[in-house]
Every structure is written in structure tokens, then in C-alpha cells.
Amino acid sequence: MNSNPQIVIVGVGALGSHVVLFGRNLPVRFTVVDFDRVERKNTLSQFHSRMGVGRNKAQALGQAMQGLFGARLDVCPHRLTEDNVGELLREAALVVDCVDNAPTRQLIQTSAEQLALPCVHGALAPDGAYARIMWREEFAIDGGGEGQATCEDGEHLPFIATVAARMTGVIQRFLKDGTRLSYHIHPGGLMAV
What we know:
The chain is an alpha/beta fold. The chain has one domain (6-192): NAD(P)-binding Rossmann-like Domain (Rossmann fold), CATH 3.40.50. It has 5 helices and 8 strands. The chain has helices at residues 14-22, 57-69, 85-89, 102-114, 157-177, and strands spanning 6-10, 29-33, 74-76, 94-97, 119-124, 131-135, 183-186, 189-192. The protein has an 8-stranded mixed sheet with strand order 3-2-1-4-5-6-7-8, with helices on both faces. The radius of gyration is 15 Å and the shape is globular.
């Protein structure tokens, strides 16, 4: 039996794919949930390669992590919905929200609260000017739905990587001693909350 805690990451685009990459040495079982497919433009700002173009993001990331690092991910190539959220999250030691739309964020936040699960949210501004890493209890969901501009042209990849590295550090610290760090981040620095 695997004694490593399960971390469920919902959304493996710009932020979530890099959190998985940077978290590959954590003593956890990652479950990644994403229904979307890798597009060529995603390879500029996400940890997805041209080999994954056209494939489901969760499956493509799982294959890349296995091939490059021998890291095994549990993958769920489906959209998180009210019908499957309980099943997908209930065993989580931590839920990590890396989605880019308000309705799914709300579903994650509400479900984590109902299931009494710790949940950390990561949010990137599409223009690369700002990011937040905050725990469920303090995270206010702003507007944003599917179809909005995203960090896809590669211009903000260094900022995305900075935010993902900081978020991975937040996860690592939580796993170590339960500390819940939160940050507001901009390209010039960060502020702890």
C-alpha cells in the first residue's frame, strides 16, 4: 500500500503543468485532472511538448513525466463536474486549483469546503502582471470564464515558472508541517499574505 499522500491538481495548463514538473520529487501521489487537449500554442507556456499536441493534457503530462523522470501520475482526462467532484477529491490530502475559469474554481472551492479538505488556489493574470497563491478560506474568486485570454504566447513563461515554483514551495511546506503560506506575486516581487 502506498503511504504517500494524494495531491489532486485540477488544471494542468500553464500553472498546473509546471507545479507537477517542480513537484516531481515530493513524496506524494499526484492525481491530475484536465479535460482539455494540448494545442500547439500551449507548448510555448505550458510543460507540454509537441509530442503531446492533440492529446488530452492530463494523459500527455502523465506520459511526459513517466518518460522523462520515471514519475507516475494518476490521470483523469475528464472535466471536473458536480457529478464526479466528490469521487475525484474525497481521498485528497490536498486539492490544488490551477484552473483558469470562475465556475470550476467555485466548484473546487465549495467541494473542498464540504469535504473538509485543504485547498490552495493558484491564479495567473493573462497578461503576466499578477498572480495569487491563496488558501480556500481567504481566496475570493473573481470573474473569468472559459474563452478568456490565457498565458499562451510564451512571453510570460519566466513569470509562470516563478509562480509555479512558489506554489510548489507552498505545497511542500504544507506537507512538512501544515503551514499555509499565501502570496500575491508580480514580476517585480512578492508579498506574503
